[in-house]
Amino acid sequence: MLPRPVGPADLPERIGRVYFRLLVPLVGAAVLWIVSSLTGSVHPLVALFSGTLALFALLHLLRPGWGEWLRLGFAFSVLAFVGVLALEPQRLQVRAEYQEQIVHLLLLLIPLNVLVWHLLFSDRPRRAQGLALALTGVGTLAATRWEDVGATQLTTSALLLAVSLVTHFFAGAVVDLQRRVREEERRARQDPLTGLGNRLAFAELCAQLPAPGVLAVLDIDHFKAVNDRWGHEAGDRVLRGVAAVLRDVLGSGVPLFRWGGEEFVVCLPGRSVHEAARLLEGVRAGIAGHTFGEGQRITLSVGLCAYGPERDLATAFSLADAALRQAKDSGRDRLVAAPAA
């Protein structure tokens, strides 16, 4: 199978993979090693935090398609740890000369997490903004408390706040741009009238070489008469209605396309010709018994052809289209299957 082209929708997944499989384990190990080196012992809080990071890294490795509750669990774990640093910095018992290094560690990690969280929650932009701002606030407070303990200036805390806020707005803009590009890509592959896939989407399906199955070409009989008698608005209503019947009968997981005009294409991976014919007869009967708008009644002619290793989708389309012409020449409102390979 040819590799699917990489697009904007892949960005959060790819960033998440690098983040959880590389950065999170490194951060956990670094925090454990640095704090232990500075304090001379393994503090329980640091050990708990590092262990939590290792757990989430393992979970992401085992289940890359994370549910929302796992993402939230990870974010709240980080917030809780940074919150403890902000509320009780003395509990780690770090000597004063080393406390500024903790601030520098926060300066590195907080903006990085702000950026990644926007991508990690790109499907929940409001939640991403809330979590990122919460992390910025808690991280800045923690840095301020550590600088107070070390009797240093608050310049690093101010820098942390500024960098985190800039990162927050930049990441938000990136996610918004990604969403817009993804929406434009979706529209480029979608028929605007029916919401089904268009020819470009079908060409991409052909390139992916789906599992062997059946391809069908459907055509509305005497569609020109609908436009001539009731007008083009009624014709558009019929086209949308046919698309709705296809979705209802075949289900949302079946690749459906509007080829152009009154012609539709259906791909049924994993189906035999007999199974596909039974399903499409259900579609044809459903269309024949449906009333569209102002009493319009229509019928469908269907041609279908099996595809597989010996016959690609493009060839199957040509043969199914020939079977469709045979169905129309035989009186319309019927289904014809192309001969087996």
Automatic annotation (TrEMBL):
The chain crosses the membrane at residues 18-36, 42-62, 69-87, 102-121, 128-146, 158-177. Its EC number is 2.7.7.65. Gene3D superfamilies: 3.30.70.270. CDD domains: GGDEF. It holds the Pfam family GGDEF. Keywords: Membrane, Nucleotidyltransferase, Transferase, Transmembrane, Transmembrane helix. InterPro entries: Diguanylate_Cyclase, GGDEF_dom, Nucleotide_cyclase, Rev_trsase/Diguanyl_cyclase. The keyword Transferase applies. PANTHER family: DIGUANYLATE CYCLASE DGCC-RELATED, REGULATORY COMPONENTS OF SENSORY TRANSDUCTION SYSTEM. This is GGDEF domain-containing protein. It comes from Deinococcus rhizophilus.
